[in-house]
Amino acid sequence: MAINFTVDGPARLVRATVSGPTNATLGEFESFLDALVAHPDFRRGFAVLYDRRAVAAPPDDTFIRAATEAIERRAARLSGCRWAVVIGDQPALSVVHMTALLGERAGVEARPFFAPEDARAWLG
Question: Highest taxon of the source (predicted)?
């Protein structure tokens, strides 16, 4: 399981993909966040296209709370970011909505999408 990402500085865009088929562990998610905020081309306010369609099931509530706390701890670098989360099925929809509500405390706006092109359009 891995979260691979690229940072396009001129486009102000991060493309992240969860390889699946299982969810990332909290440690893997935190490693992703640490690598992202340390990336030399990453800046506050970048758009994040987070594709998790390869994951078979949504994460549980415990992971969601811990992941949003991990984002909050990095709010100094992540606030102002918009996260478009590309999902593959309906059960993930409510999870992303809950994550978005919790993520607002860190100044991160998130929305779920079924189509990558819709996610990209929302990101601008």
Answer: Bacteria
